[in-house]
Amino acid sequence: MSLRSALRAQTADCHAAVDTLFGSFNLSRIQDYRAFLRAHARVVPSVEYALENGGIGRLLPDWPDRRRAHLLAADIRELDDRLPVLLPQPALLSEAAIWGAAYVLEGSKLGGLLLAKAVPDHLPNSYLSLQGLKGAMRLFMDRLDATMVEDPDAAVAAARDVFDLFLKAGQAELEAVP
């Protein structure tokens, strides 16, 4: 079984929970959209920092083009909101864990493209609508499929940890929406 297949199968429950939670934000309402972005801003920079500290640049040379925390921060500032406190960085102590965390962040880009359609045109949405370089998702999936890690369970654990961070952040922000 490829690492991608293992990640997909063994994190499907987490993915569904995150999709359900973030699907409850009404992105056409500015209050919900701000909360949605703040929830992501609690997680994305932390995970990106952890990936960089773990050496994602060795695995994905185009990593700098994949980063989105700066786009997220710009959208939040454009909404006259402030950045929230970050959740702790996940511990990415192996190549497998790096791939697992990257799998979640890269996959969230696809969901973001779908969600961007619900954001009114007058609101900033560079974070959600980021297309990236042509073929970037295919390149990521090809590299993930070609990866032979010694401990695929570490990849799954890291992915589940990142999904859990998104759940915690989403729940906290959703509770604060008026």
UniProtKB/TrEMBL annotation:
CDD domains: HemeO-bac. SUPFAM superfamilies: Heme oxygenase-like. InterPro entries: Haem_Oase-like_multi-hlx. It comes from the Bacteria. This is Biliverdin-producing heme oxygenase. It comes from Rhizobium indicum.
